Amino acid sequence: MRRTETEAAMSNGHDTYPPSTFIGLRTKFVLFISLVIIAVCSGLSWYFIRQQSDAMTRALVSSGSILVKNLSHNSRYGLVAKDLVLLDQLIAGVMEVDESVYIIFIGPDGKRLAAKSKRNVYPSHTIAESLFRSDSQDVTITPFTAIGSGGGEALYDFAVAVRRGNERQAPFSLLTFESEESQDDSATAEQSSERIYGVVQIGVTGAKMHEALNRMIGNVILITIAVILSGIFAAVVLTRRITTPLRNLVDVARRVAGGDLTASVGPMTRDEVGQLTTVFSQMTVSLRERDSAVKQAYQELEQLNRTLEQRVHQRTSELQTANEKLKELDHLKSQFVSIVSHELRTPMTSIKGYVENLLDGLAGALTHKQTYSLDRVKHNVERLTRMINELLDLSKIEAGRLELTLAPVALSEIAEEVVESYQAAASQRSIVLRAVDHQPLPMVMGDADKLSRVLINLVHNAIKFTPQGGEIQVEGRMHDGGHVEVSVTDSGNGIPAHDLKRIFDKFYWSESAPVEARGAGLGLAIAKNLVELHGGTISVESTLGQGSRFSFTVPIAHS
Ligand SMILES: Nc1ncnc2c1ncn2[C@@H]1O[C@H](COP(=O)(O)OP(=O)(O)OP(=O)(O)O)[C@@H](O)[C@H]1O
Ligand SMILES: [Mg+2]
C-alpha cells in the first residue's frame, strides 16, 4: 500500500518541521526556567551586596566620626596649651586602633603641632584650611585614595575643628562631606579662626571593610551560583518528568501513523500527560479493531468480487451460447422465409395466370357475380405476391445477400417512369399524381432497379393513404451539394408525431392508416435499407390530417 504524505512526514525525523527549526519542549522549559532563576538570583545578590556595602560604609563613617569627635574633645586642652605630651598620648591611643592610618593635630595658627602616620600617608592640607575658614562644627569626611607601593588604598579623612563653644556641643552631630561645605567670605573666616583652638584629623583605612565586602561578595556569588545550578538541575529533572512520557507518546504515535497499530504505551505519570497517554492507548486499540474490521470487510469484498467475476463469466458464456443459438435460429428463420417465399411465388404466379384466363373468358362466359369474385381473388393474389416479394427482399437484405449493381442513374427519369406507371391507379381514386422538375439534376450513383423500388414503395403508400381527390407530387432537387433528393408529398391522412420515429421499423403500422390500406408493414423498412445501402438517408415529415412528405437522398455520381 502507498504511504500517505503525513505518514512520510511523521516518520521523517521531527514531524513536519525541518530539523534546524525544531526546538524540544525540554530545551524550551529548561532555557526559560534557567533564565528566570539567573535573573532573580543575580538581582537579589546585587541588592544584598549593595545593602551590605552601604551598611558597612555607614558603620565606618559612624565610628570614624565618633573617634574624631572624642579626640577633639579630649585634645582641646592640649591644643590650647600646646601640650605635646598630652597630644602624643592621644596619638598613641588612637594609633592602637587597627583601622587608624594617621592622626594630625593642628594648632590655632594653622601649624601642625603633632602628627603620626603608619604608612607615611597624609591628607591634603586644604581640608584643614577650609575648616579654619568655615564656622562648621560638623565632622568633615573626605574619602581619598593613597597611592602606595602596594597600589591604591581607600582612606577616609575625618576632620573636625575644635572650637571655643564646643564644650556644650554634643559629641555627635550632623555629618557633612567636604563638598557640601559652605564657602564663607574672608571676614567670616577671620572671625571663625579667632574662635578655633585647632583642627584634629584622623585617617581611617577602608581596606578592611573592602576586604570583608569582597569576602562577602565572593560568598554571595558562590551561593548564587549554587542556587542557580540547583534550580537548573531541578528544572531539568522536572521537565524530564513531563517530556519523557511525551516523547514516548510521540514515538508510539509515529509508529501508529506509519501503520504499526500494535505499538502501545502505558501511562507513566498521574497527571494530564498520563491521561493523554491513556486516551491515546484507547484510541490505538479502537484503531486496531477498526483496522481488523476493515481488513475483514476487504477480504469479504474480494471474495464477493471473485464470486461476482465467476458469475459474470458464467453468464457471459451462457449469453454467448444463447446468442449463437439465436443467430442460428435467425439464420434458419431467414432461410425458412426465403425458401417458403420462393416456394410460394410459383403457385401464386400459377393461380394469378389461371384467374386471368378465367377472367378473359377462356373457360367460358362468366356471370357478373363470378367476375366480381375472380377480381377479388386476383387483387388478393397480387397483394400476397407483393408481400412474398417484400419478405424475400428483406430476408436477402438481412442476410447480406442483396448486392447493388451501381451505375450512374438519372433519378428524374426513374421518377417519371414510376409516376407514369401509377397514373392509372391514381386516377382510379381521382388523385392528381405528378412529377416536378425545377432544374436539371446530375446523375446519381445507384442501382436503377432498387431505386425504382424505393420510389414505387413511397408512391404506392401515398396513393393508398390519400383520400379521393387528393394530390401527390414527386419532386427532385439538389441536396447538400453532394446528393440528389427525391421527395413524395401527399395531401393524405398524415402520421401522428409519436409514430414518426418508428415508421421505418418492419411490421409497423400507424393507427391513423385505414386497415384496408395496410399491407405487411415492410415497404418503408425495405426502402430505408435500400437507401442506406446506397449511402443516402431517408426521412419523413408529416402533419396529421394534412399530409406527409417522404424524402430520400442518393450520392451524385462523379465522372
Ligand atoms: N404516405 C403515407 N401517409 C400516411 N401514412 C403512411 C404513408 N406511408 C406510410 N404510412 C404509414 O406507414 C405504415 C408503414 O408503411 P409501409 O409501407 O412500411 O407498410 P404498408 O404500406 O402498410 O405495407 P407494405 O408496404 O408492406 O405493403 C403504413 O401502414 C402507414 O400506416
Ligand atoms: Mg407500403
Description:
The chain is of the alpha+beta class. It has 14 helices and 13 strands. The chain has helices spanning 5-11, 25-74, 76-81, 84-95, 126-133, 186-195, 207-257, 272-359, 368-398, 411-421, 423-428, 448-464, 497-500, 523-533, and strands at residues 100-106, 112-117, 140-148, 151-163, 176-177, 196-205, 407-409, 432-437, 444-446, 471-479, 483-490, 538-543, 547-555. The strands form 3 sheets. A 6-stranded mixed β-sheet has the order 2-1-6-4-3-5. Bound molecules: adenosine-5'-triphosphate and magnesium ion (MG).
Low-confidence stretches: 1-15, 166-193
- Structural class label: alpha+beta
Shape: rod-shaped
Helix content: 55-70%
Which ligands, by name, code or SMILES, are bound? adenosine-5'-triphosphate, magnesium ion
Structural Rg: 69 Å
List keywords for this structure.
559 residues; alpha+beta; 6-stranded mixed beta sheet; 5-stranded mixed beta sheet; 13 strands; 56% helix; binds adenosine-5'-triphosphate; binds magnesium ion
